[in-house]
């Protein structure tokens, strides 16, 4: 059997002797942040939409308001209150150089909760991001700091828990810190894919290889490829003892017993987390909801401290059979292996190269008659044969601009300028918004007029257009006008025709009132600012939508 060329063998041997360094993290310094055994719904590094999962999702048995405790001595250094994202979150800084983060909380411990509340009333603003000095809110290991919940971008009650390097703010894999979470289950491999890397990984895309389990080893039939330059990708999950599908911690790719690529997910910063889109088959993730991870480096993927070995591109210099082994590990060392053989068959080659309109590390401008898009040098992870066209749209004040397709990721903001299809008045310009439809959802921005067009920024591809919005936002109360409200809160449901409610202000008897935003609803929990038996109240609510249209509504109720 033939082997690789001499130069390739030298590279492989060098990589085969590589020792991938791992930092020594303190063991058993941090305790379980809940008073129930840790059961994971998601782990660090799991594939998410446009980001790696940056911590542990710890199950709360479908309950809210479980005590959340400090994982170690320290002080509350920051809190956040936001509609999406973390919802209510607490950051605790510890003397050993780490910060722990606790998110999706319902409330904070009493003195902190009161401080935040007073700050909200002082600022007349519900969303907050407050930092604290070391002496303001010291906490001890095991002290209750909050109650768990389901706030922010949470799909069900749980606690999101992170450990960060205090100095760099990098998120570290909490499972490197010695938490006792029994796990004797090896990862499960369910798919293998190859890509023709003479071209972009996006075109022609993935070629499926059927995987079967034989005993304790995963295998495939011999893989015949039509290209002398390929890469592989794997579909696998880490199975925890309780049955949840977790993300893969480590993968290695070996050819003829030589390591040529691997990844390990020990740490990621929020500045870099979007590089997930360069680590997965993005098209299959968007189209088929499948998490397929590349065993190679795309040319525009610049995530540090993630991959090791070479770039993972397999160069086949001959038509001999070569042995492939893929090793998948969880953080406890449970290991699964896939073995197969690969052979180049040039007679199968039917692929012709397309043009590469946009390539990594190069900026690019693309124009149509009425639109212009500008990408910077970090926009794409692999070459894209980018297409852009227009079609008439009777519901818009511009043509619809088709930006390639939904299945190619963009790493950072691009600038898009669209001309209207008729002359707009000054008032109409002020009421125009830019919409991007990317299949699963829509995004609306209030762009800026630049010469003869509106300019906005987006991070996804799809279909964009200009919409004229003359409608007013509104809220609908969960009580009848003037009625006695006996429950614990007031609730208002927000509605817009186009876009979102961008600002909300409520005044009770001419004084600002603290409404929390829960998805599209606004909720005020009765407190001392509206005591029982205080008679008839007037609630004035002012909202503004994406277009900038403002509506003021007045409601009355008794308490």
UniProtKB/TrEMBL annotation:
Protein name: M23 family metallopeptidase
Lineage start: Bacteria, Pseudomonadati, Bacteroidota, Flavobacteriia, Flavobacteriales
Pfam families documented for this protein: Peptidase_M23
Domain M23ase beta-sheet core: 52-120, 133-167
